[in-house]
Design brief:
Oligomer: single chain
Bound molecules: S-adenosylmethionine
Shape: elongated
Number of helices: 9
Order of helices and strands: EHHEEEHEHEHEHHEEHHE
Structural class: alpha/beta
Helix content: 25-40%
Strand order of the largest sheet: 7-5-6-1-2-10
Largest sheet: 6 strands, mixed
Low-confidence stretches: 237-246
Distance between the termini: 12 Å
Strand content: 15-25%
């Protein structure tokens, strides 16, 4: 999977891309991330990326020209590929499991370009020229698109076969099957008087599987009943998977 990120803070990504599952995915060639400094595409000597808003008001707006040049440079470097261009934005489609899978498929085929905004946001004409889709990580506002981009990259990396050591753990992840995950326990057997459920010590794998299914359903009912309501709406008898069939740029 190929992901290119355009940002004014490429350094924020370095430790993230060198650590844990994402770091190993990059090391093993399963994921490639290109970092592009927006300021490399400015033309003034201060390398400025923002300006005052037309119409007045507070704050600064990221100007269009550098963004358009930066995205086109990434596209040109992509050659035959036509990467899907995503602006991280609180106004976008809220990210969920289905959205992550869809973006993972696009990233695996043609690659993704992630645009990380800052300040009051980006000149609207960037959206009209070089953005295919806006993606939000939730209905709240953070100060820049860098953390949302990292959230997306980490979620995408889990979809790449071989990135998560035990593939079954991705299958059991919350939301994967329209349910939350079951509870997990590890040593010691008793913590503050709370014992591990007997069934998990029984060695009876069928019973353990049944218990985990029941617990996943119970957790979903209690914590996220909306997921079950959504499932009921999709129709009885259909499983939750029924619909799923430049110079200073840095490479990780
Ligand atoms: N004024 C903008 C608004 O209310 O829609 C918010 C601008 S925010 C301070 C600066 C940048 O952070 C945005 O351009 C976007 O790239 C990123 N951002 C903030 N919240 C986000 C969210 N929930 N999801 C994705 N990106 C977000």
């Amino acid at each position: 999977m190929r992901v290119d990120v355009i940002t004014i803070f490429p350094a924020l990504f370095a430790p993230f891309l060198a650590t844990s599952l994402v770091g190993r995915a990059i090391e093993r060639g399963l994921l490639a991330v290109g970092l592009h400094d927006l300021r490399d595409h400015t033309e003034d000597r201060h390398r400025s990326v923002d300006d005052e808003p037309y119409g007045g008001g507070g704050g600064m707006v990221m100007a269009a020209p550098a963004w358009i040049k930066a995205v086109r440079a990434v596209e040109q470097a992509a050659g035959e590929r036509r990467p899907w261009r995503v602006l991280l934005s609180p106004q976008g489609r809220r990210l969920d499991e289905a959205g992550v899978r869809e973006l993972a498929a696009r990233g695996g085929e043609d690659g993704l370009v992630l645009l990380c905004g800052r300040y009051e946001g980006i000149d609207e004409r960037v959206l009209e020229t070089v953005v295919d889709e806006e993606i939000s990580i939730g209905d709240y506002v953070v100060s820049g698109g860098e953390l949302p981009a990292m959230v997306l990259i980490e979620a995408l990396s889990r979809q790449i076969p071989g990135v998560v050591g035990f593939a079954g753990s991705v299958e059991q992840d919350s939301f994967r099957r329209g349910l939350l995950d079951h509870p997990h326990y590890t040593r010691p057997p008793v913590v503050e008087g709370l014992a591990v459920p007997d069934v998990l010590l029984s060695g009876d794998h069928a019973a353990i599987e049944r218990w985990r299914e029941e617990q996943a359903l119970a957790a979903t009912r209690t914590k996220r009943p909306d997921l079950l309501a959504g499932e009921a709406e999709r129709g009885a008898g259909r499983g939750p998977d029924a619909d799923r069939d430049t110079d200073r740029d840095t490479e990780f």
